[in-house]
Write a structure and sequence with these properties.
136 residues; 5 helices; 2 domains; mainly alpha
Length: 136
């Protein structure tokens, strides 16, 4: 937006997925910029695993007559393990990720990346190594 490379004038649906995580990661200013650049007449969909006060305030500010849909969790948050590893370089990252998945053998896992291209590269590499992968 800042560089003028994207124009949101024709936007009719704004989807904010993982809104709670975006705030936790410090993207409040970026979220505000996107919301402010989007047309006032639009459909807004906001998805959040948790609904802290900050998310509620954002929803009240940017949505008209919002509908809240709650889905019961199939597990509690205590069953979710988060691991953070720092590795240098793409090749080392791919190797480390594959080794972690082989070691822990989770029933399911979510891998976050910074860009769609990176998501595609990681998905391709994991698929090449024999993992069942869906890139989103």
């Amino acid at each position: 937006l800042e560089k003028g490379r994207i124009n949101l004038e024709e936007l009719n649906t704004l989807v904010l997925d993982e809104a709670d995580r975006m705030l936790e990661m410090g993207f409040q200013d970026a979220l505000d910029a996107i919301i402010n650049a989007a047309p006032k007449q639009r459909q807004t969909l906001l998805f959040s695993a948790t609904f802290p006060e900050k998310i509620e305030k954002i929803a009240q500010r940017i949505m008209k007559s919002p509908e809240m849909i709650k889905v019961e969790s199939t597990h509690d948050t205590s069953s979710i393990a988060q691991y953070f590893y720092k590795v240098e370089g793409t090749e080392a990252r791919d190797e480390a990720l594959a080794n972690l998945l082989l070691t822990y053998q989770p029933e399911s896992a979510v891998v976050f990346c910074n860009t769609k291209k990176e998501v595609q590269n990681v998905a391709d590499e994991l698929h090449h190594r024999g993992f069942s992968v869906i890139d989103i």
